[in-house]
Structures are given as structure tokens and as C-alpha cells.
Design a protein that fits this description.
The protein is about 40% helix and about 15% strand. With about 280 residues, it is of the alpha/beta class. An eight-stranded mixed sheet has the order 1-2-4-3-5-6-7-8, sandwiched between helices. Helix 2 crosses helix 3.
């Protein structure tokens, strides 16, 4: 059970699935531990073209330490770098969803030599570029720690709608089958939830995204009510050479499209190979 040491001495838990293939760090969303990737890391580590999946727990959740806030994107990004150091991984593809996608942007900006490629799912460049959810959906999201919905055996329709597209809500029990048990066993305190959300409010990368030079794939659901697809479309314009994929789905894209992460990683790797070929042709031309 490996632990890295992040800024301030915080112990950051992570796991690695797979022993061959390029490393991919998977960063989860607000208040969620790496458990919420469910079987995705194991699936990435299998097959004829596997990845080594590295799954850290944010400070405050999972098996990581729970130091007092404030937390910041810089802090989260440096935690990821500490995990790479501890795992002796020089460079990795970095995948992030929602809050995790914000952290991934900061990893690429603060530690560019460590990032072979980026996959940004259901995320945003932050203020002033962010298009927030509607007032209704934002209120529902902010009320979750106090509403009791995170302790139920089933996800009610209003909660499911935050995570899924409208068309997928009737299938919530199937698509989010592991969520109720995970939410009950991986409880996030109100203090940590607030610290994570405060980091989101301070997130702003739009003016610096032009500095990102690694292959970048951006994926958004066409019916994401928490971070509408406008946010990803703007990200794709701000990150040089980024590829945008709009898929049917809501905020938790892997729930309705289980292969989206592998597909995006494979594309980012292909983009990296294409860049390498182009550089080689230029050097010999």
C-alpha cells in the first residue's frame, strides 16, 4: 500500500494496476477517492495494449491524510508530482475528471516535464471562462453533504440527474451501480468537501493554457448539467492542438461510455507519436 509525501508532509495514498505499458495517472472529482474509478483501472491494465493505471487519493479522502485546509490546485498538483516521484515514474499521461481535470491542468502547467499527455473529462478552465451550472443544479450539488442523499441505498432521480444525462437517468441503478455503497463507505467530511470546493473557486488557467504543449484530448458529455459542454469546447480552443470529443452523456462520462478513457488515452498517445514522427522528419529533411 504505497504512500507518497505531499507538501506539508501529507501522506498521499495511491495504487498501481498493471506492470507494463505507459503510465496513466487517474485523478478523480470533488470529494471522491480513487475508488470511484471502480473497475476502470483494472480494465486499462488488461488487454493487448495495456496501460499502467496510477490512482491517487486526493488529500482529505480515501486513505490519504486529512490535513486542515485551505487546499489549492497548486497543492493538489504537487501531490500528484509527489506520487510520480514516489512511484519512480518520470513521465505519465494524466487523466482528470471534473475537479481532477482542473488538477491535471495545473500538473501540466507546474510540472510540464512530467506530463506525456493530458486527458481532460467534464472540466473547465475556471474563472473567468467557466460556464457554471444552472442555479437549480448548483443548489442541488452544494446541498449534497447535508441532504442525506449520500447515505442512501439508492440514488434518487435528482441526484442521478447531476451525474447522468436526462436520457440516462432511467438507467441510473444500472449505470451507477457501485455509487451508493462507495458513498457510504468513503464518507467525505463537510470540512473536506468545503476545502475541495474552495480550491475549485480559485481555479483559473485560461490565460496560461497556451503554454501546454503536450498532446491533449478533451472529452465532454453533451448533456452535462454540472459543467456544461461549453466549458470543454472553450478548453479545446485554449489548449494548442487539443482534440475535442463530445459524447452522449452527462457529467460522469465513464458511466455511460465505459471505454471513453481508454479511447482518449490511445488518441493522446497517437498524437504524441505523430508529433515525434513530425519532429524526426523535420530533423532529417
Amino acid at each position: 500500500m504505497p504512500f507518497a509525501t505531499g507538501p506539508g508532509g501529507a501522506s498521499i495514498h495511491y495504487a498501481i494496476r498493471g506492470t507494463v505499458g505507459p503510465p496513466a495517472v487517474l485523478i478523480q472529482g470533488l470529494g471522491l477517492s480513487s475508488r470511484f474509478w471502480f473497475d476502470l483501472p483494472e480494465r486499462l491494465a488488461k488487454g493487448s495494449d495495456p496501460w499502467r493505471a496510477v490512482t491517487p487519493d486526493h488529500r482529505g479522502v480515501g486513505r490519504s491524510d486529512r490535513p486542515r485546509g485551505p487546499y489549492s490546485m497548486r497543492l493538489f498538483a504537487d501531490d500528484v508530482a509527489a506520487v510520480l516521484d514516489h512511484a519512480r515514474i518520470e513521465r505519465a499521461y494524466v487523466v482528470g475528471i471534473s475537479l481532477g481535470g482542473m488538477i491535471a491542468q495545473h500538473v501540466a502547467l507546474r510540472h510540464p516535464s512530467r506530463v506525456a499527455g493530458l486527458v481532460l473529462l467534464a472540466t473547465t478552465a475556471g474563472v473567468p471562462h467557466v460556464r457554471p451550472p444552472s442555479a437549480l443544479h448548483l443548489a442541488r450539488f452544494l446541498s449534497l453533504p447535508l441532504s442525506g442523499q449520500l447515505d442512501r441505498d439508492d440514488l434518487d432521480a435528482s441526484f442521478a440527474r447531476l451525474l447522468l444525462s436526462k436520457r440516462d437517468v432511467p438507467r441510473a441503478r444500472e449505470l451507477l451501480a457501485g455509487w451508493p455503497a462507495a458513498l457510504r463507505s468513503e464518507r467525505t467530511s463537510l470540512a473536506v468537501y468545503a476545502a475541495h470546493f474552495a480550491a475549485v473557486l480559485g481555479h483559473s488557467t485560461g490565460s496560461r493554457l497556451g503554454q501546454i504543449t503536450c498532446p491533449t484530448v478533451i472529452v465532454t458529455g453533451d448533456d452535462d448539467v454540472l459543467l456544461p459542454d461549453h466549458n470543454s469546447r472553450l478548453l479545446a480552443r485554449l489548449v494548442p492542438g487539443a482534440h475535442l470529443e463530445v459524447v452522449p452523456g452527462g457529467h460522469i462520462i465513464p458511466a455511460s461510455d465505459p471505454e471513453c478513457v481508454r479511447r482518449a488515452l490511445d488518441r493522446a498517445r497517437a498524437m504524441s507519436d505523430d508529433d515525434g514522427d513530425a519532429r524526426a522528419r523535420a530533423a532529417t529533411g
